[in-house]
Amino acid sequence: xxxxxxxxxxxxxxxxxxxxxxxxxxxxxxxxxxxxxxxxxxxxxxxxxxxxxxxxxxxxxxxxxxxxxxxxxxxxxxxxxxxxxxxxxxxxxxxxxxxxxxxxxxxxxxxxxxxxxxxxxxxxxxxxxxxxxxxxxxxxxxxxxxxxxxxxxxxxxxxxxxx
Amino acid sequence: xxxxxxxxxxxxxxxxxxxxxxxxxxxxxxxxxxxxxxxxxxxxxxxxxxxxxxxxxxxxxxxxxxxxxxxxxxxxxxxxxxxxxxxxxxxxxxxxxxxxxxxxxxxxxxxxxxxxxxxxxxxxxxxxxxxxxxxxxxxxxxxxxxxxxxxxxxxxxxxxxxxxxxxxxxxxxxxxxxxxxxxxxxxxxxxxxxxxxxxxxxxxxxxxxxxxxxxxxxxxxxxxxxxxxxxxxxxxxxxxxxxxx
Lengths: 163, 245
Hints:
InterPro entries (chain A): CcmE, CcmE-like_sf, NA-bd_OB-fold
Oligomer: heterodimer
Low-confidence stretches of chain B: none
Number of strands of chain B: 0
Pfam family, one (chain A): CcmE
GO cellular component, one term (chain A): plasma membrane
Structural class of chain A: alpha+beta
Function (chain A): Heme chaperone required for the biogenesis of c-type cytochromes. Transiently binds heme delivered by CcmC and transfers the heme to apo-cytochromes in a process facilitated by CcmF and CcmH.
Strand order of the largest sheet of chain A: 1-3-4-6-5
Protein name (chain A): Cytochrome c-type biogenesis protein CcmE
């Protein structure tokens, strides 16, 4: 390799390293802003080294798994209340609206709304978050014991809990 | 080590090489794509929770993977163009860019069509979605920069530099779902672990993926041939090949 090519090679590698370094530093600094949602643990215990917790009244998104047996529906309206968990404490979400078809107990969801109390969020939007596993219904039933019925197809007797 | 590559740096040789490769690539791409997509879209089973909507995977995942592979290919060509100043490497940057841009746009559009019924939203400023959108802008930026200079040589150099620098985005796209909390789920097949897709759905997906790769290579061959002819149109070999006057 002659000297001119070598010079070009090194200068391009240097530019690339500089750009990669600065973008890396930027993304690291913006870490909290890039996260789409708080997990229940982050909401309760705070994020990062400073343990920053969201304030009451703050608009935020919360993402976690719907706790089994925690879904309570109001038989008169669309009002629904359920608990979310990741690895630690649980957080309660209240939502008045139509749930996405993927919603079920044990499913991951992301809710957007306001923090009303320490661990209570009044959501204005609930999005379903599915995992990266895809399989036919028979396999899911045999392997994981899951038989998914979309909320819109559930019968009234199944879903009407006390409120 | 790269001795066999050297003759291909000569436009005339590369033109004929691509010409010989193109029919094989195109025919096998059409055959494999038809087979893989028909299997996936019609015969593969439904998903246990997404039902028929999961079939978007047979278009979405291959185009998303291709958008990143194509970018990597373009960045390597740009790097060779900058350091070794190989003419055909610089031409291939512009030959590859629109193909990658189309794959990126397909992955974004099919992703939106998949997100609305499943997640409940067309778009969310999630790290994966945003970095993929940036990839589209990088492709468009390379194309625009190439055309922004009246001197093609300068335009080619500047566009190649952008293409090389943009490679930083590729690992960000791939790892975005691990580094941050995102609405988009983690990787299903591009990981060092058993794929999380049931074999009855994985096979049509992998076959579709192979078909997409072959289609991309065929299109690159086609565009590169056109680019070579355009740049070398006054050379005697072009006149001899095309039988012009």
